[in-house]
Amino acid sequence: MSIEINAVKRDAKGTGASRRLRRAGTVPGVVYGGGKEAFPLEINAKELFLQFRHEAFHASVLSLILDGKKESVLLRDFQMHPVRNTIQHIDFQRVSATEKIHVKVPFHFINGEIAPGVKTGGGIVAHILTEADVSCLAKDLPEFIEVDLAKLEMGHSIHLSQIKLPKGVSFVQLAHEDDAAIASIAKTRGGVAEAATETEA
Questions:
Q1: Are both 90 and 111 inside the same structural domain?
Q2: Whether pTM exceeds 0.90
Q3: Final residue before a domain boundary, out of 94, 126, 146
Q4: pLDDT value at residue 25
Q5: What is the mean pLDDT of the segment spanning 51-80?
Q6: pLDDT tens digits, 162-189
Q7: What strands, in cross-sheet order, belong to the sheet with 145-148?
Q8: In a domain, 200, yes or no
Q9: What is the mean pLDDT of residues 103-127?
Q10: Same domain, 189 and 109
Q11: Tens of pLDDT along 26-40?
């Protein structure tokens, strides 16, 4: 499902103008890249925040509708208000259908509760990475990457090279020979604490 963002051209520029836009309920932003000039824009704050809350908004190719014209874009940067949790500014980058893109995609962990290291070893799953940078064409970009922990033993880790990716998608870190660990099974601190309590008694 494509996520659509409705925007209009932003004529006013500068810090003061941006402040006025936010007071009026809109978020200033910019779209750039794709061999075209950067274009200032503004988006309805409520509509944007409803989309922004979804995980897919941060790791999907989005449809930006600017003055009636639709473009494929990626979210590249945003600034949040430190107290109000509102979006202060947002940046989008145009994407080409023929050029590979680099995007951080989240991991979805499954079967952690039946992993041998948890079920019989009494350990807990430690999430070392929650996302990873992938390289692919825009049409092949996955919303998330599934990590199956069903066979993970106590003290063992699962690495990037062990993850099955969709066709046309690759981990950027592996291209640089960095086979990072994604998750592991660790001993619970509770067990150590209980043993210490018994010894003291």
A1: no
A2: no
A3: 94
A4: 87
A5: 92
A6: 999 999 999 999 999 999 999 999 987 6
A7: 145-148, 101-110, 131-136, 170-171
A8: no
A9: 94
A10: yes
A11: 999 999 998 888 999
Q: What one-letter code names the amino acid at 176?
A: H
Distance between first and last Cα of the chain: 60
Contact 117, 152 (CB under 8 A): yes
Same structural domain, 18 and 79: yes
Residue 33 is which amino acid? G
How is residue 17 written in tokens? 């103008």
Q: How many residues does the chain have?
A: 201
Tell me which of 94, 126, 142 is where a domain ends: 94
DSSP 60: S
The whole-number pLDDT of residue 65 equals 95
